Amino acid sequence: MKDIRIIFMGTPDFAMTILKHLVENKYTIVGVITAADKPAGRGRKLNESAVKKYAHSQNLTVLQPTNLKNEEFHKELKSLKADLQIVVAFRMLPKVVWQMPQFGTFNLHASLLPAYRGAAPIHWAIINGETKTGVTTFFLDDKIDTGEIILQEEIAIANEETVGSLHDKLMVLGADLVAKTINLIAEGDTITKKQPELEEKSAPKLHPENTKINWSDSIEAIHNKIRGLNPFPAAWTTILNDGIEIFAKIYAVKKEEEEHQHTIGQIITSKKEIKVAVNNGFIIINELKLAGKKRMNTKSLLNGFTFSENSKML
């Protein structure tokens, strides 16, 4: 069963963990496709993807095409004689690529499809206050995240869950689901389920406009947004302090529900605490990063930074 020849496609840590699970469980990986090296940091040194680093450590064949429609790449792919291709956190593939192996190509997506198709499913599940999510394997087709579902596994989202903690849970769950999916395909036991055309909830790319905190939102919505973006890319805001605007990223918070007379966005501080007045309560900030400073807990920040009496979040 495990003699099935597999090409694995992926780039970040999430994908690397899935690949590692397959290698350690003796699946036959005949090739790994990952993103081209990119310059990073001040020295603009070329940075290799997590998948590439791991693949090289296991002496696996690695291809890094810049153009997935390139005929030379297609020839290299064919020469690997794969029976099945697996995609985890990679780019959209042209039809000629995903149709190439006899068993086709399946994708692992970090949501319960058809909900949260798109680039950031883990973030948006938390931002939207979901109480459950999961992982889905599905066969690729012409559109994004719309192919026939093979398997799904569900997981609860805890009240204080962050995108960081949920990402790690789904990574482990996803590794098991990918292995189960390969076994089903190899045994010829695959029964797929067609996805409905419409989707109620999507997971678009994150950008500065949709990661900014709106302090006029409900206390629940603000709390969900901050934990749904912690630690990456982090929810952001502007602090008005003594007439100066300061860019800040907000990480760990708690919500405190109570009636008050403060204006929305007002910052209330003590020696150890930063609170922001919102509708029906306060957001207590435990960890943040001001522009030009490192990420730190509230107590450390307050040791060297003073908020004016009229400071507020914009």
Structural summary, described in words:
The protein has 314 residues and is α/β, with parallel strands linked by helices. It folds into two domains: 5-202, Rossmann fold (3-Layer(aba) Sandwich); 208-313, Methionyl-tRNA Fmet Formyltransferase, Chain A, domain 2 (Roll), CATH 3.10.25.10. 27% of the residues lie in helices and 29% in strands. The protein is built from nine helices and 20 strands. It has helices at residues 13-24, 50-57, 71-79, 95-98, 121-127, 163-187, 208-211, 219-228, 298-304; strands spanning 5-10, 28-33, 38-40, 45-47, 62-63, 84-88, 105-109, 117-118, 132-139, 149-156, 202-203, 235-241, 244-250, 253-257, 267-269, 274-278, 281-285, 287-290, 296-297, 312-313. The strands form five sheets. A seven-stranded mixed beta sheet has the order 5-2-1-6-7-9-10. A hairpin with a 2-residue loop joins strand 12 and strand 13 (244-250). Helix 1 (13-24) packs parallel to helix 2 (50-57), helix 1 packs across helix 6 and helix 5 (121-127) runs antiparallel to helix 8. The longest helix is centred in the middle third of the chain and has 25 residues, at 163-187. The protein is elongated and about 70 Å long.
